[in-house]
Amino acid sequence: MGYPVMLNIANQHVVVIGGGKVAERKIHGLLEAKAKITVVAPTITTGIQQLVAIGELIWRQKTFSPDDIVGAFIVIAATNDRDVNEAVANAAQPYQLLNIVDDPERSNFHVPAVVRRGRLTIAISTGGASPTIAQQIRRHLEGLYDDDYGRYIDFLYECRQWILQNVHDEQKRKKLFKTIADESFRKRGNWEEEFEQLLENVIKE
What we know:
Elements: E1 13-17, H1 21-32, E2 36-40, H2 46-53, E3 58-60, E4 74-77, H3 82-91, E5 97-100, E6 113-117, E7 120-124, H4 131-144, H5 147-166, H6 170-180, H7 183-188, H8 191-204
Parallel strand pairs: 1-2, 1-4, 2-3, 4-5
Antiparallel strand pairs: 6-7
Helix pairs in contact: 5-6, 6-8
């Protein structure tokens, strides 16, 4: 059983071994998290080439060697060559986060299927048992939580910051937090207007 966490990897050194479609998918997720990425591969996809051209990552055009991952916070082996992936696993240090895409047993972490809506992140994992099922669940959740839900989460964040800075009564804070997080509040849609009215009513109490 894994221990789920949300990692802040902004500006952290990540090395991806492999330049195919699987590596490209991993890279896009890492870029969203603002990691500093180095790709090690003799050849890379057109998509990765485009990212190299605009300076989004570094490409070392070579076969893997153990010194490629020295100092990396995260190491991802995403080749279709089991011998290369095995070499990466053997070279990784105990303190490094390691993902071998075709061998969850040799990995100390794996990347879940993810739904992102603004600040909302929903991760789905089957512990490596069935990535297909994880993707099916992800598609189902995408239908439940659309882009409008992402805007609502962003609205809640802004409200929370304002309440923490300006409302000093603990009970009033709790009431405001509870009210704006209620599903009926979200569905009504006029969030800014309703929040202003709610503030007036609660502060007068």
